[in-house]
Write a structure and sequence with these properties.
The structure holds 2 protein chains of 2 kinds.
Chain A: E1 4-7, E2 10-14, E3 19-25, E4 32-37, E5 44-49, E6 55-58, E7 61-65, E8 71-76, E9 85-93, E10 96-99, E11 103-108
Parallel strand pairs in A: 2-11
Antiparallel strand pairs in A: 1-3, 3-8, 4-5, 4-9, 6-7, 7-8, 9-10, 9-11
Chain B: E1 4-6, E2 10-13, E3 19-25, E4 31-38, E5 42-49, E6 56-57, E7 65-70, E8 73-78, E9 87-94, E10 106-107, E11 111-115
Parallel strand pairs in B: 2-11
Antiparallel strand pairs in B: 1-3, 3-8, 4-5, 4-9, 5-6, 7-8, 9-10, 9-11
Classes of the chains: A mainly beta, B mainly beta.
């Protein structure tokens, strides 16, 4: 089936550092979605991207829709402890949403 | 501000029991989904429904069935629970906006099911 490949699988960073993660696909998506899942909770949508090349920010988060439509990037600036969690990329395909396997972010004190 | 609710946060059942997981959304969404989430495997789609009484198999439907009798309610059924169905189960719903753009897909808080 369709796959979204996320990297890295996990990250260990110091508080205050910037974070970059990405998502790639072998096929084109017309919408890219980025979710965050806090421990023990369901995922929550952070940013939605609808146009190739689009760069969208939500506070300290910035996401970009790759120009080829086959990738997307999420950056977090000046990380804080509450940024800990799993970040998923996703894209609608027919009536479904396809998810990557997630990037788990750990923040060291 | 309740959007998607799931009947239980934690559930413990025995092998062979019939298990019902209920999901209710209050946003009048057409599409509803059941996923399971396991470490290292991400979110895997079990079943989804795009209308009342309609259902479609996802990537891992074996051992599960679903019911959508009302628009707001989507139930996941484990006919005979097995230990390999121990997992976190997440329900979600969404609909496309009038512009054709995807609107936010809301997830429930999840049900952590343990089958002994």
């Amino acid at each position: 089936g369709q796959q979204l490949n996320q990297s890295p699988q996990s990250m260990f960073i110091q508080e205050g550092e910037d974070v970059s993660m990405n998502c790639t696909s072998s096929s084109i998506f017309n919408t890219w979605l980025w979710y965050k899942q806090d421990p023990g909770e369901g995922p929550v949508l952070l940013i939605a991207l609808y146009k190739a090349g689009e760069l969208t920010s939500n506070g300290r988060l910035t996401a970009q829709f790759g120009i080829t439509r086959k990738d997307s990037f999420l950056n977090i600036s000046a990380s804080i402890p509450s940024d800990v969690g799993i970040y998923f990329c996703a894209g609608p395909r027919d009536d479904k949403i396809i998810f990557g396997k997630g990037t788990r972010l750990h923040i060291l004190p | 501000d309740v959007k998607v609710t799931q009947s239980s946060r934690y559930l413990v059942k025995r092998t062979g029991e019939k298990v019902f997981l209920e999901c209710v959304q209050d946003m009048d969404h057409e599409n509803m989904f059941w996923y399971r989430q396991d470490p290292g495997l991400g979110l895997r789609l079990i079943y989804f429904s795009y209308d009342v009484k309609m259902k479609e198999k996802g990537d891992i439907p074996e051992g599960y069935s679903v019911s959508r009798e009302k628009k707001e309610r989507f139930s996941l059924i484990l006919e005979s629970a097995s230990t390999n169905q121990t997992s976190m189960y997440l329900c979600a719903s969404y609909s496309f906006g009038t512009s054709g753009r995807h609107t936010e897909q809301f997830f429930g808080p999840g049900t952590r099911l343990t089958v002994l």
